[in-house]
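Board work, copied verbatim: assimilatory sulfite reductase (ferredoxin)
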Amino acid sequence: MFEPDQADAASATRHVVVVGAGPAAHRFTESLASRLGAGASDAAAAGLRITVFGDEPHRPYDRVALSKRLDGALDLSLGDESLWQPGRVEHRSNALVAAIDPGARTLTLSSGENVDYDELVLATGSWATVPPIPNAAAGRVYRTLEDVDGLAGELKELTARLARPVDVVVVGGGLLGLEAAGGLNRLGARAALVHSGRWLMSSQLDEGAGQALGRLIRQQGISLNLAVRPSEVLLGDDGEVVGVLLADGRRLAADIVVFSIGITPRDELARNAGLAIGDRGGIVVSESCATSADHIWAIGEVASIGGFCVGLVAPANAMAEVVADRLWGGLAVFPGIDDATRLKLSGVEVASFGDALGATEHSIEVVYADPARGLYQKIVVSDDAKTLLGGIFVGDAGPYTSLRPLLGRELPAEPGAYLSSAGGEPPASADLPDDVQLCSCNNVSVGEVRHAIHGGEGDSLGCTDLGELKKCSRAGTQCGSCVPLLKKILETELTAAGVAVSKALCEHVSLSRSELFESVRILGLHSAEEVMARFGSGLGCDICKPVIASVLATQTSAYILDNGAGPMQDTNDRALANMQKDGTYSVVPRIPGGEITPAKLKVIAEVAAEYDLYTKITGGQRIDMFGARLEQLPEIWKVLVEAGFESGQAYGKSLRTVKSCVGSTWCRYGVQDAVAMAVRLELRYRGLRSPHKFKLGVSGCARECAEARGKDIGIIASENGWNLYVGGNGGYQPAHAQLLAQDLDDDTLIRYIDRYVMYYIRTAERLQRTARWQEELPGGLAHVREVVCEDSLGIAADLEEAMALHVENYEDEWAATLKDPERLRRFRSFVNAPNTPDPGIVKVSERGQNRPAFPDEKADGRVLLSGSSIPVRAAAPERGENA
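↓ predict structure ↓
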């Protein structure tokens, strides 16, 4: 392999030509230009001329964000426009390079123009692969802005002409295929996806993760056809697309077919010029990204390094940095392929990094699937369970941000402690060493970020806001997956320096949750669109959207899936039920205070028997039924509502239960009627949306059989009335409730609880339990007592009025759903076959009831791992063992 002469690379005057104007070309150009310093004449002053040829009519744009174009984003341009100012970089659009002459160091454009170069960087990218099947030319691809704009335009035209939803078949279940299907689905198309693998994203995810992703994608109305390939695009007599014939003989209706099955390196220029080409295509390069020809380099998807071409952001950026350094006289080498990925596919978070599939010998996997929210999370560690080797996250990729930088290092605690599904929390940002890589896309370390924050002159700080820090350090400016950790580090460092830290919800909403709540209340906003238009930017994210939906539900008592709030809700809220590990749902009717009549018990028994549901009495004194399919939920709730039941809202961030003992009615130790009070409280606060779930407990005497002090609000009877405790909870960080007031009569007790709950709802931050909220308030419990009991802020009447409004306007969510045919349309497993059950749901009888099948009990061996404890399994067999 030829390596360019370093002395020659540092010669006085050079014309650097870049062929291709994609993300890799932009990164190289930006990196090279940054070495010149600022100013229009720097390139000429340094004896350097930089020209970028691109065959598209645009400057470089973010191809990873193409789906945002379907959602209405107009500008996906990369970087700062100042890069292209005269004297720094010349960008020539619509300029197709037709040939290269390495010997003469010239290239020829399709127009016939010849251009001399001193150094040539090939960043030609790739083509979208199209399968060799009949009529494939009638399909579309999903690769460029023109592709996406063309799709959107055709979809709009067909929708108007056909006067019905357009049927779209997307071939390919990888990253781009899922983004295309999701984007078109959001535009009103009926999307069907065809994938040759047995599960989605089969190159990046294991079977459990792929199955979890498949369920979440199906919930959005996208039908999946797995383990099958297309054999022909079907055309009508007029030559227009009418369907897709699959290899198994099935036919899918289609008005549009989109291919997204992979990439083919655009290596024809290099091939025709005699450069070495890899066996699988792509331009062969060394670790310095030099090709086999003198003064020609290759970066990005077209570069074959180690026999592979990689279509990911981080490796392309690393190659660009290597070549920029080499042309400036450095000795940089390609550090290796980082295939870490974090994306939101059709609104579903997916992330993987490192040895995600557990191929390392003797490695073990720690796997957890949250049965309440349908999450799949896995960490791969060394055989001693200490060194982090990789991970996969579906549904909630929160742990990825903090764990990705620790790849290859010893974990500070046991692996399960970092999985949010198991109640874990990420490692503290303050504990991350400076040499840990924070941003893999731009190769930025934690130490570099800290230096940027503290890098001001003298004692002054450098970057003090997130936007400034991203621009200065370049961390978080590409895929954005490291931004949450970047924000945490910024907040930690600023707090340590005595600087007030912003409580902004996310990059789309600059207000904190409490500020947003007050703003919505004062302005009287009633829809998600109004809130985003007034306080948001962009399309929002999975942080701000559920918060907005919750705030609106609390203030308006409106049906939680109306007024544009439906798509903003979490998975469970959208189904008005908790998703379980096998894709079924739980049915949890409200049983106020745990009190239930024999007649109602009989109804629950009959429903459970008819629909073959697993039944369990919970710690919250109600009966849960598990195993209902999505399309069965309305049928089941119709029976329950007619029998006088309401939704127990086990799926919502709202009141869960009010637990009670039997109290003075039956117990010889009881001093107050605990059941009557529990029923009264549960009927008062039912359906009330809050920053996090909250629970109450009522004990009829000091023996505390209802465990009231382990609840957010605990009421314990005394001879003189009720003692009120607040700020307790169980879970991962248990807390005992603290005494707020004692010897209260019934009305005063309820008045204080009204004030406490509403003050919590108005001032707590996102997902903050009452215990943490109470701790962080200035003055803590004393402040709460002053506000609730003494009305120190003069808002008691306002808080009581807000609660009275909730009580007056409450409507059971399932009762409201059953009255509206449009609302009922949400509850279908398959949009195109609404009464068809999910064939992937398999049950096994155990102890007289059904439970989800384990992997070895299913015909195809596919099921998610889960449990009350974290299952651990060997990921890779020892050498010589059978796989």
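Residues 1-11, 860-871, 873-883 have pLDDT under 50 and may be disordered.
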